[in-house]
Amino acid sequence: MKYFGTDGMRGTFGVAPINPFYFNVLAQALWYFYGGLKRVIMGRDTRISGEAIRQFLIDGFPQSVEILDGGILTSPLLSRSVEHTKSDLGLMITASHNPAADNGVKIFDRAGMKLPQRDEEGIETVMDEIGKEVRNRGHRIVGYEVSASYTMGDEIFQKFDKVVIDCANGAAIEFAKKAYRFPEVEWLGVTPDGSNINAHCGSEYPSSLIEKVKDRGAHLGIAHDGDGDRLLLCDGKGKIIPGEAILGIIAIYLGCIGRLSNRKIVTTLMSNQGLERTLKTYDIGVDYV
Prior knowledge:
12 strands; 9 helices; alpha/beta; 32% helix
């Protein structure tokens, strides 16, 4: 792939293809590739370069495209909002867990799913064919307040009296303060300044979280990354909880309340086989990809 990586376009801001020209061309290519777009919703994390990239993308779309600006929000919430707003695409301006100097864009289709590789390859081909003219299309942007429903009952939160939550100075801050309703919470990484996202905080740097959990005698530690699509947990002793354990707990909980479709989960081939053996005792199957 020439422009796209494992999850959208990402790299150092100002260095091709993470610069004004390529973001403008990307927007034009998306419009041509999908045969015309009527509505696009955008969101971004807290990086200082996010607002500029937002404008570069907007300038690439024809004026016929309605742009919904969700402001600062997490990638999962942007993904859900695409279908909710009946948008044709969702563009999340973020470099995820990368340092603040990086930025990029994740693209979601009208169902809120990541683009398949064949689409990315086709978009790259169109980008190369578009030419070198960069135009400002003069859009009128519609502000859009994204909201989410939080379905976990309060009984879940009451099981943990004291919790430490690290938001990585990123996009998850507002979401986390609404979604997590623990009796006592100590917050870390909630003072973004545009340059401190993921800076020795969040899920990529759990040492501060672990130290605070042990120091405060908390029962649980939660850390997100810059765009809120990664989660790390530690217990009251500061021990990191493996991803398979988290997946297993969620699967068992959803199975018990009748909300696990087909009583199956999907995970990668790299998952510990103990997950499959444990879930089998609860009559929950595992498919691998």
